[in-house]
What we know:
Blueprint: E1 2-9, E2 12-13, E3 18-21, E4 28-33, E5 40-47, H1 53-64, E6 69-70, E7 72-77, H2 82-97, H3 117-124, E8 131-133, E9 158-165, E10 168-175, H4 186-204, E11 210-214, H5 225-242, E12 248-252, H6 261-268, E13 271-274, H7 285-292, H8 302-309, H9 311-316, E14 322-323, H10 328-339, H11 351-365
Parallel strand pairs: 2-6, 5-7, 10-11, 11-12, 12-13, 13-14
Antiparallel strand pairs: 1-5, 3-4, 4-7, 8-9, 9-10
Amino acid sequence: MQLITADYPATTPVDTDVHVGVVGSGDLEITLAPPASSDTVTVTVRTSVDGFDTTWRGVLDAFFSRNEIACDVRINDFGATPGMVSLRLSQAFEIAAAPDDEATRGTAGMPFTELNARQRAATILDEGTYREILPPSDHVESSHLERQGIVPASDDGAVVARGTVDGVPAAVVALEGKFQGGGIGEVSGAKIAAVLERALVDAENGHPTQVILVLETGGIRLQEANLGLLAIAEIHAGIVALQRHVPVTAIVAGMVGCFGGMGIAAGLCDRIIMTRAGRLSLNGPEVIETEAGIEEFNSADRSTVWAVTGGEHRVATGRADTLVADRPAAVREAVISGWNTPTDRHRADRVDELTRELAATDAERTK
Length: 367
């Protein structure tokens, strides 16, 4: 990983924070903040690809030679091309010149699965109530990735927002699947656990807050394995403690799916909402193939993968509750409807039922 810095003259200081992009393959994240000096643009680049100083400086020189906005610029790059860098810079500075709401930017008519984590959270909450906790401008990121040559994200891939849903106080945590496959590390895990803990305190004080988890994750982030395990254990405990007061809803929409320890977290929630594109399982297809062999499970066979782990199958077999169309409005309506549909037993209390099902399955296999 390489650090590149540069300064350029400018005339008009920005007075707002701007965030665009994601630290995903071939992409980059850019944050703009009010400048330390009103006549200077200060640029800091962290890139996962070493040895391209000349290319970076060429792109930056060309862009900032025609820029008049003074600000502090942070770029977290994950192998973006010069064209993509220029595109993201243009996008960021256009927004700085005419600020808008990032959380709802470009969401009209988009499928839920194609929205980023911030947009997903915003489309679930009532319009105008979205308030992000620890936004990218706070730069609360993992301290463990950089030393392993991985560029961190300024929100560690976890978006926490508060607001209302149908007038009811709610907190939404949405994981960004494009950053490290939505993997749970120390910071992202702590954000989820903190939301659950805060909601529990609110409920115990007579101010219940509904919690919605939008899960797009392969489970624990391997680069922070032990810390990820600890965080997921806290998340599991937080879900079980909170659901004695208010229901906890999980949404598994697609793209990455929901696997590993966070698959267990989803399984503990009171209601699980899925799209047909969503996948939910303990082990991912590649893991099953590696451990059991391709004869047991071929991870390249997409029809089989979705037939076993996809949303339609999970709802049909009772492992998820609601199958929804891939539209933000449909997902939001399913959340509200789920709150109005009481459950007789929490999933965490159904160990006996699941044990009987496993025993019956084992009996069939040994015949």
